[in-house]
Specification:
elongated; alpha/beta; 16 strands
Length: 637
Amino acid sequence: MDYLLVKPDKNRHRYVVGIDFGHGETSAAWCELEWDKSAGKRESVAHDIELIGNLKVIPSAINIIPDGRCYIGEDAFHSDCMMDGAKMRVGFKQCPKEIEGESEQLMIEYMRSIYARIIEKVDKLQKGNHIVYIARPSGWTDDRTKCLYQRMALEADIPLGGLTSESRAAIFYAINRDEFKKNVLQGGIVFDLGSSTLDFTYLNFDDPDPIDHGYPCGASIIEQAIFEQLLLKDNVFSDFLKKYPMYKDAFLFESRKRKEAIYNTSDTNLRVREKIELAHIVSLDSLPEEDIDKYEDVALKLRFSNVNEFNEWLEQVCHYKTDIKNAIRNYLNQWIRGKKVYGVYLAGGATRMNFLKPIITEMFQLSDEQVKGDSEPSLTVSRGIALIGTADVMTTVLREDLERKKMQLVEPQRMYTRMDKLIQDMAGCISETSWNVVHEACSDFKRKDLDKNLGVKDLEADIRMRLEKFTESGLSSVISGVFNQFFQYESEDVRMELNDIIRYYAPGQEIKNVRNEVSDISLDIQSISDICMKRISGIVGKLLWAALGLFLFGVFSLIYQAIKFLIYKFKSEESRRKDICQELEKNESKIKNDIKSELVKKFLEDASFSNIVSKELKSYLEKLIQYNIDRVRIPIE
């Protein structure tokens, strides 16, 4: 299904929208794609969307009445639209199984309605100028489930750019918060408590792959407990629901509203005085006449001395606090065992509940100051999706730019230039090293066995022997060194050119040290050296002697020696040898240049050698560039 996703286009798209279709509530945010600004000058701000009035969060509820009209949020349970044949649901989000399923079709209609509301609320969003990213529960990890969820969004006519897990969106938002960023440097957790699941994400900048896992202990368990343990145990309410089961979700929704009212109080010592009135939920005029009087004054009173007493009741009936503790314990022991936790960031509207922070500080062994949260935790995920979607769009275009750069870096003309440099470097190094052999021979000749009368023939024989040994055993390492240095230089050149592009889009993704990080890219320097050796090992000695030829003929000839005899007759052995070597070494520069020129000529004439080496270089650079292109990808999924 990925091929149906919207592909980011720098020329069309101006905005990114992030939507959190939560099990309990839905929120959305948008970001501007500031293409004309470099990374350091972008604001990267997620703007919340007011989905209903001036409210940024809407309850995830839907009602499709028989004539096809769709109502969402609190409007879904307005008494005027609750009628026979209506599809009224709350908390209907579930792991998709089949696209035609009842819950899946309801979710598609809900997605369609939310997206229409977003377009209506944000004037800047026009058809074709934005991309949408949506969150999925962290537990939906298999490809089939993710594919189905994508299909559902696409069927709702959403211009979808991709999915990301809720926990990953939350951590992406959290690491941009100053109060949490320093914790992530050493190891931090996002604690995301939603309506259906509790999701954890651990991140440490030294090991940047997030570790996320979810548990089925979302806050909807609390309204379910109110509904089942209080409301259904009231004989009149229970009797009503048996007669009119269509209102079950309306009563569940009302139980949720009472739960939120209990936990929204700032003073947890105040008495809890909440009431569920049947007449406020159901239009009694729509009931048969005999039922109007029967249910007119029916109400369920929730009475507790304070919020803590309500918490204790909750623990007794469904062990909710115990489930939260067990989830934390399992995550610590099974998923991040041995890893240090220096801070926890709270996300999700349910984290407002007063009993959570003490549990978190106890289980993670943290101080109150190490447990942070946003003033609007219900918006953490939608803001994070908008931000991570923006990063995905930017890095997608970045990767396209890098792909184009990749073609430039390995184009034929550039490869020819590189080969010219390699040949010049190799010829120069071989000529330099070959001369070092001559120089060492002269050094030994000048100082060893001064009690013996050695002549130029002895020096000539020693030079020949050393050169043969060098070409047989030393030349290979010289060539390998040249190739190593050459590839290192080219890698650094690639790094700098890629980083010029990367810095504009994503400065935190620059390539630091290419060669040290590319252990999985094969480059068999030895094989390349062996290929080179086959081409030149037989000619290095010959080339050296050819370059030395004319001069050596004079130095080592009998006529030259006869002339020099009278000069050397009255000199010491040490001075005589020194003069012989000096005659040879004073031509060093010319000899080395002659050797280098001859080697360059041989290399350039050998088309097979050039093709083999340039092919290997091209393959290596392509892999190297692709490796680094892949590194700048933001892990949306």
